[in-house]
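seq as requested:
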Amino acid sequence: MLSTRKAAAVWLFLAFERVLTAQTPLSSHAPSPFYTGVENDLGQWDLGEVPAVNATGHLVFETANSLLQHWPNTRYRIGHTIVPGTIPVGTLLYHGAITGPHLPTALEWVSVEPDHSIVFCHGPIETGCWHLTLKVTQPMKVLYFDGSSAVNIPGGTMDTQDLVAWSKMKPEWVGNEEQRIKDLCKWGEKYGVNGFVSEVMICDFTSHMEVVSFLNLESIRFGHGSPTNLPEDLNTVHHVFEIMHSASRRERYPGETRIMLDFSGLVSFYDTALVPSLVPRRVGLERWDHRMEGISSEDIERVQDRLAQALAQPPVTTSGLDWKTVLRVVVDRYSSRLEMMQYLVNMTLDNRSIFGHAQQVQRRLRTVLLPYTVFAALPPNTSVTANTINSWAAPVFRECATSHTASIVAHGTTLMPSERLLLQAVRETTREICRVVTKMWASGMMTGVDPLYPPEQRPEADQIRTLMGEWKEHVTQLMSWLDWNVWVKCRPACGFEEMCYLPTWPIGFFPTPGDEPPSQTQRDGASLWPDPNKGEWRRPQPKCIRRLEPYGF
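struct tokens:
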């Protein structure tokens, strides 16, 4: 046993020696060239300064981090982001033909998944249906709308498309797909836009694509009835659930990888400088209820001008920054650690175990901040009981908050307006994460639960309970403010025969028991839509559903 410990100690010593000798010594007191004048002022790093009520940097951050991912855009179906993109050469696209083996001559929809397009492959059972596979031969310029922008229902999912196509929202035309795509294509023609992505809406099938195959397939035998009813025919039910499962493959990061978005051209309705008229409209509302209603005509014009600039610029900007990765690195660094802290501070503890438990949380806080804990920031012994605002921790807060963005700012990288928005979003988001984590860590130091700085006398259990209560409040508020989709999951995890599902129309929303099935005329009216102010539709929550028979919700 002793020899094992000795060997471990030698290994750790050698490992640290190797790391230390590989680094160039730096003075911990030398001012960093990465800081702006404001950032060098430690007075700007107040651990008690919370974000403004109307701040939207975290919303820009999470919407940008969620682009082309099915899960977060199902949860928050009303889109707020429009981004130029490209469908690369060689990408396969699929189209289920309704009229026969004819290449569409009008504006039409395609899918990146054959499981989806084959639903529209219609034809008699006796003769089958025709399914078209296309290959992209030149990079296709597209415009992407986030949210559930392929779901033509009342309640806001078409808002951003309407503003581009018609410069105003037309809720009475929510189901007028043909006119919408026609006018979108007309608007995009002058910018060389080949299509629009909610589904992939193609403006011209004779451009940028070639036919790979046009197969005469067996027609899928769908049962008939209301789209909101669970079909009685088992074959139909099976196909519906498999379509849902195929969509789930693109639910999370990195999402749909066959469409390349240009973040330097991103336009966000959460950009308060671009769209100031929506700021007062969001006051007091949860994110579920954010809409475009009330946007001014001046702001609509500004959005269209910004889109025109983004579509006119080359797809590769001078900055060369990979914003998708910049955003994701922040999420990867903090998401699981915050989730673990939330778990730990919510445990019920007795007086005997609470001190060791608080030390466990403190170790995790220290681990998060370790790359930023400059030696000069550690509190002198004389201040451990006197400094209640923890101003000594300001350098740690600053180092943490600027770690992902300082180099971008310092090198004077040429940024497009959209990139400046993303930079500010990352700065606001990391500032709040680091403010809360640093405040928690400093409070643990002051209370005397840090294992590396033990107090002369162990704190009383009541002191530690107060600390744990504060920690719980801080973590809960931070995670609620960030609202990252990575934390939205089925708990407990689903079994092998199940899948995690977020309710969305039409699958899983059934008529009230006793109601008569709607007629064909009713299907075009409001009777099909779930009440936008009730239950799972208003606040979709994940739940496990079966992937095998017997199916159900």
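Residues 1-34, 382-386, 510-528 have pLDDT under 50 and may be disordered.
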